[in-house]
Specification:
about 375 residues, alpha/beta, six-stranded mixed sheet, 13 helices
Length: about 375
């Protein structure tokens, strides 16, 4: 089958499956009346609901994919087994980059992915994940959950019939794997790199040829030289993908993703049909999944990095020249986008105000502690 025919077939499947999947959740919910003694209907205050969640990640990445599994497990536990969610890895129901389409069309009730995968639908969605030279994990979560970010994001997702929830954070990511050393801005010119989101747009401005690939496609592309570099997450996940076997140089910091959050995407119709207690359960399960993902990476990245270095990986810090040029290109890109779109301007200005305030606080107290304690290691 040709690639075009496959896309057409997939689109037809999603459109046909849409109403059936959302309706399937409703039919399960309607099965609340179960037989008691003597065949009399038993009284049930909570219906049975069965959902499907499409993840943008492969099952083998237990920290990211595992967060979706933890979310589902918490929903089942808190509902006493009456609200269940089956999580499908990327490619099993839909490809990673089509998760939002599947939720929007209703072929699944919910999905789990970084929103910047879908910035082609609306570029402002990137703020829901991260912005280059932006917020750290705690700052990103604070902006979304307490600083007004969620109030800005919800209307954007509503345009696609989706309601969004924070459901994970990877912690500050690494700068990625390179087949050769990158010392100057000139070294980026003509480089072929897998990198999504706004970080990809910044590198494109610096001369890099950008590609967006799902997790399962990264290693073979890097190994055979179809790309010269890639970023993924950090030591723990990168080691699982085997990227150390395809490239030698491992750069830091990941300035394009200093604190990226993951999102649970929920079909609005399916959400509206949930009992309020199940809505509360789902939202609280998202908080649990967020904490689990962040804690997992923070606990496992240190040892993974030690293993990588012991195995021959060469750590490199991005030069000040590259960081300065990238930051300048980022500021230029954000201002251009904000000047061209009123919604982008509204989100960007509010985000920037929060960022500047947060940076002021963190650079005063925590930085003083970190500067002292890390310098004495």
């Amino acid at each position: 089958m040709s690639e075009k025919s496959e896309r057409v077939g997939r689109r037809a499947f999603l459109e046909k499956a849409g109403s059936a999947a959302v309706g399937g959740g409703l039919l399960a919910a309607c099965g609340a009346g179960e037989s008691g003694e003597g065949g009399a209907p038993a009284v049930q205050t909570s219906p049975r609901v069965q959902w499907r969640m499409a993840s943008a990640f492969p099952r083998g990445l237990d920290a990211i994919f595992g967060a979706a599994e933890r979310l589902a497990a918490e929903v089942e536990r808190m509902s006493g087994g009456r609200f269940t969610i089956r999580v499908y890895p990327a490619g099993e129901l839909v490809p990673a980059l089509e998760v939002m389409d599947a939720v929007q069309n209703g072929s699944v009730q919910c999905g789990h992915a970084p929103s910047y995968y879908f910035q082609g639908k609306n570029p402002v969605l990137s703020f829901d994940t991260c912005v280059p030279f932006g917020l750290t994990p705690r700052q990103q979560l604070a902006w979304l959950l307490q600083g007004g970010g969620m109030e800005l994001m919800r209307p954007l997702f509503s345009d696609f019939g989706i309601i969004n929830f924070v459901a994970g954070n990877t912690s500050c990511q690494m700068g990625g794997w390179f087949r050769r050393e990158i010392n100057t801005v000139g070294d980026l010119n003509g480089l072929k790199m897998r990198i999504p989101g706004l970080g990809g747009e910044v590198l494109s401005r610096l001369g890099t040829t950008v590609q967006v690939l799902a997790a399962g496609d990264i290693f073979p592309a890097l190994e055979r030289g179809a790309i010269d570099a890639t970023e993924w997450v950090g030591p723990y996940d990168d080691e699982k993908l085997g990227l150390q076997d395809a490239a030698t140089y491992y750069y830091y910091p990941g300035w394009w993703e200093p604190g990226p959050s993951m999102t649970a995407l929920v079909n609005q119709q399916a959400w509206d049909q949930l009992p309020s207690e199940y809505q509360a359960i789902f939202e609280n399960a998202c908080y649990t999944a967020t904490a689990q993902m962040l804690n997992t990476f923070d606990a496992r990245n240190p040892e993974a990095l030690r293993r990588l270095v012991a195995g021959g990986t060469q750590l490199r810090r991005f030069s000040t020249e590259i960081l300065t040029a990238a930051q300048s290109a980022t500021n230029e890109m954000l201002e251009e986008a904000a000047s061209a779109d009123a919604t982008y301007r509204r989100v960007y200005d509010q985000w920037k105000t929060f960022r500047d305030s947060s940076f002021g606080w963190f650079s005063t107290n925590e930085k003083a502690y970190q500067d002292f304690i890390y310098s004495n290691l």
